[in-house]
Amino acid sequence: MAQEDVFKKLVSHCKEYGFVFPSSDIYDGLGAVYDYGQMGVELKNNIKKYWWDSMVLLHENIVGIDSAIFMHPTIWKASGHVDAFNDPLIDNKDSKKRYRADVLVEDQLAKYDEKIDKEVKKAAKRFGDAFDEEQFRATNPRVLANQEKRDALHERFAKALNDNDLTELRQIIVDEEIVCPISGTRNWTEVRQFNLMFSTEMGSTAESAMKVYLRPETAQGIFVNYMNVQKSGRMKIPFGIAQIGKAFRNEIVARQFIFRMREFEQMEMQFFVRPGSELEWFEMWKAQRLKWHENLGLGHENYRFHDHDKLAHYANAATDIEYLMPFGFKEVEGIHSRTDFDLSQHEKFSGKSIKYFDPELNKSYVPYVVETSIGLDRMFLSIMAGSFCEEELENGSRVVLKLPAALAPVKLAVLPLVKKDGLPEKAREIIDDLKFHFNCQYDEKDSIGKRYRRQDAIGTPYCITVDHDSLKDNCVTLRNRDTMEQERVAIADLNNIIADRVSITSLLKKLQ
């Protein structure tokens, strides 16, 4: 099945089973804005807890804050967002649709990658175990031709971005014969810059109103509180500040479900270090963050690093951790060495010293910063995409979300075999004991097979079936979602058995 069809099924599944709804759905929705349903909010909260605990619990020198969405407008002047937070946009004159010029070129690069991968897969199928992929990539004429085109495009594209050459960016689109997905034509306007910040006014009267912005990132809330945290917590360099919060960007090209939205959530940690040591810490955090992602068990081969073609004006190193979504490898987390740009700018614009006195060096300096930043919504999408499966069974088929057990919205379902003979009452006893420890569901409607399928579809790792023997031996049948294997266990042991398999702690221990 084509990946595009798989993605459509995933989007439909998210709505049908209460993970993600279009915002304002009864009013036909609002572009690129989504609501998380009853299952989605549980999964989202579990992702947050996994990230937060991995930062704050596992590192003695990392603490958390929660800064306000509204901030003094000069902050955004100091950070460069007022003058330089732009996307290069291009319009198609026939469809009247607007696109990000850089994304159009990135999609073209991805097409060359797809052509190469297609040739490799065909050859692997043809030659079987004797296939040497490295040799094939180095010698096959079609692979080499596409690789040459890709490399040439990539070099030209990177130069245009670094030179901020909008004319050249448009020319690349023309030369590559990139068409509008809607009209199918190449009738393009010039490329121009568009600022992404939402603005509003704050004040009791129109005359006294001050223009403020909805924050386009959460990082600045950490930077302006850096001294407050350092002094009140008596923090010593190196140390980090973590934050989870909403951010807002007026994305013109909002697409691919929750991958690119106008209102989104970030999980960011800013790590403050001595000048000159930042690149060592950058490499350390690269390794740490990739390990965190791979720890979820979604497949080592589905992750890769992608170094930036164009560094932000404040950075001296930057890379993305990309995950293989149904629409290709896409960024889920960025790791950036931001130098001392942010803190120096806020010191300059505020007129207040925010230097750190290092007692070991006996001198003061503005710390350098290494940032790790995850788009929580993108992380959510990567986990859903990596967990969505359609399986053919001997007695039919099933759709199952093989979510990491520690992140699953519902940890276990308790199912009486029939709705009589005291089985529902016994099932309720079990729920009443376990609900203090896990998010549980009770279900007695339909056959046991249909109930299993419902729990598979929302990713419940374990189902407990209460049968007539349970009333005699105080044991139940424990069913595993992924293998569908069943084991007989004592009711008294359920808490310990399940806790060991579904707790966030079980994930965190693997990071040590």
TrEMBL record:
Tell me, what is one Gene Ontology molecular-function annotation carried by this entry? ATP binding
Please list the residues that bind substrate: 100, 217, 264-268, 371-375
Q: Where in the cell is it found?
A: Cytoplasm
Stretch forming the signal peptide: none
What the entry lists under PROSITE patterns is as follows:
AA_TRNA_LIGASE_II
**Which segments constitute the Aminoacyl-transfer RNA synthetases class-II family profile domain?**
150-416
UniProt GO BP: diadenosine tetraphosphate biosynthetic process; glycyl-tRNA aminoacylation
Alphabetically sorted, this entry's keywords are: Aminoacyl-tRNA synthetase, ATP-binding, Cytoplasm, Ligase, Nucleotide-binding, Protein biosynthesis
Annotated EC: 6.1.1.14
Under InterPro entries, the record lists: aa-tRNA-synt_IIb, aa-tRNA-synth_II, aa-tRNA-synth_II/BPL/LPL, Anticodon-bd, Anticodon-bd_dom_sf, Gly-tRNA_synthase/POLG2, Gly_tRNA_ligase_bac, GlyRS-like_core
Q: Which domain of life is it from?
A: Bacteria
**Coiled-coil residue spans:** none
Top enzyme class, one word, equals ligase
Q: Which reaction does it catalyse?
A: tRNA(Gly) + glycine + ATP = glycyl-tRNA(Gly) + AMP + diphosphate
One GO cellular component term: extracellular exosome
Gene3D superfamilies per UniProt: 3.30.40.230, Anticodon-binding domain, Bira Bifunctional Protein, Domain 2
Could you say which residues bind ATP here? Answer: 249-251, 259-264, 331-332, 375-378
Q: Which HAMAP family does this entry report, sorted A to Z?
A: Gly_tRNA_synth_B (MF_00253_B)
Tell me, in a sentence or two, what this protein's role is.
Catalyzes the attachment of glycine to tRNA(Gly).
Binding partners and assembly: Homodimer.
Q: Which family does it belong to?
A: Belongs to the class-II aminoacyl-tRNA synthetase family.
The name under which this protein is listed is Glycine--tRNA ligase
The source organism is Bacteroides coprosuis DSM 18011
Gene of origin?
glyQS
